[in-house]
Amino acid sequence: xxxxxxxxxxxxxxxxxxxxxxxxxxxxxxxLTTNQLxxxxxxxxxxxxxxxxxxxxxxxxxxxxxxxxxxxxxIMAKKAGTLRMLGIGDxxxxxxxxxxDKKFLHIIAQELKEDTEKDVEIxxxxxxxxxxxxxxxxxxxxxxxxxxDLIIVGICLNDFNSSKPVLSKVLFSNRIGENxxxxxxxxxxxxxxxxxDFYKFIYDFFSNSKRKMYTKEGFLSYAxxxxxxxxxxxxxxxxxxxxxxxxxxxxxxxxxLFVIFPLQGQVMNREMFSYKDLSDxxxxxxxxxxxxxxxxxxxxxxxxxxxxxxxxxxxxxxGYQLAAMSIAKYILDNKMLK
Length: 338
Hints:
five-stranded parallel sheet; single chain; three-stranded antiparallel sheet; alpha/beta
């Protein structure tokens, strides 16, 4: 009888854990479900924006994708004397929380237009969640065909991941299920953390992580301690798509500029580089790049808020404006648009 009770307790416990795992997976699934994305025919892109739709996104911003799945209107044949600028990146460049005229690509275009006295056309091909391999595929698949004069590639430190995100079809939409936790790792039982949404929920709730951002002090502590570790092997793999982007741009007589966005914690910690190895790599291959760490550090010292509230990655409106001014100055100083 006693053995039966113990067995019943064990079975009940297993069932509770199973149901908890299902519930937390449903919780994360609901956060990641969207009708704005479709599976791509290109296996390297994996997923892309649904073409030719207009909608109001979750931030209340009116959004429109053209037939290529790029933000904005249809792309017409380039007029003589027009400078065409193509943005490639992830959610930092996409900036879905801002209206088009507040996004840094638009601000760059306005600055260049004033200085060059030419029409500057911006094309935003960024897709939230993309890593560098997908961005390379976007340049190959769609970017080169529209004949840009300048390609701006936005870089965040979580873009290095060489394993591909997965987008699977569900009943009425698609789900992005990235097979890594945005670079996050657990101190205890990390293997379980990467595989179990229930353990992730519990760990995040009780540890110094995203579930403890409800207070300002908790968030600042999390931001300062947040770190994306990149091994030497992962870095070597990361260099391949950058090399190929440079080769593609040169062979097609297109200027290319890499922009490295620091994490908020790095700025708070007064780091000198967003990622020094990456800066050294771009210097070594003689590629145009700008690390925004310097300008962000100066602004942070002055007490300027640079990031969205409780967000360690995405700049706020002022942060984007500062980035745009720095990028436009670099483009002009280096005569990248002749």
